[in-house]
Amino acid sequence: MLHQNIKESTMPAHQKVEGIIVRQLKAVRSEADYAEVLKGFYAYFKAVEEAIAPYITTDVLPDLAERRNSSYIKRDIEELGGTIDNLPLATAPQVNNVLEALSALYVLEGSIMGGPYIVQMLNKYGIHRGTSFFSGYGEDSGKMWAGFTAVLNQHGADESTFAHAAEIANETFYNFGEVFASVTSEN
Ligand code: HEM
Prior knowledge:
By secondary structure, this protein is mainly alpha-helical. It has a single domain, classed as Up-down Bundle (Heme Oxygenase, Chain A). The chain has helices spanning 2-9, 11-26, 31-52, 70-79, 98-110, 115-124, 141-155, 162-186. The structure holds protoporphyrin IX containing FE (HEM). Protoporphyrin IX containing FE binds at residues 7, 14, 17-18, 21-22, 106-107, 110-111, 113-114, 117-118, 176.
């Protein structure tokens, strides 16, 4: 199944991104610092959402309207007193069909799994507001993830497409990391 394959093929990319995000979070000393991290998430998630929008319709993903998106990040930034002005540079991977779009969305949807860990870290640093995005679907997260991976498997049933799907997912992880590379070098 494509899900299993893409998971294995992107494990090193996930680890790298996880490390980048943990480093960003460990440097958070204030709500304003946290809002800056969220701006990186917002810039990238919005860019990817726009790239995949022509392909991810409700025909492909029936519960699309119930899924978390970058508007949650914007709300969190604003709750923290920030704005979405001066966003860092973010480049979405090029996607040209439904399977490529689902492969990019795999990375965004999957990031919900790390959410509880991120909220826990933030709480430890005294941050308790602006965490709606990282709270994901709460108790429904497992169910929503199963729904997404079923759609991914259905559209990626042909084994000859696995390698390319993984390539797009890896690029989606990589480009996300790049957003924070530019943030760090500017600081
Ligand atoms: C502090 C940061 C993060 C931590 C601690 C973390 C942790 C985790 C954990 C524990 C899982 C496995 C959940 C399970 O199998 O039940 C997971 C899955 C996943 N995470 Fe992360 N994550 C983090 C950040 C991210 C980010 C920023 C992204 C994407 C931009 C991401 C993408 C994914 C994906 C795609 C999966 C699904 C793997 C699968 O196919 O099952 N993660 N993460």
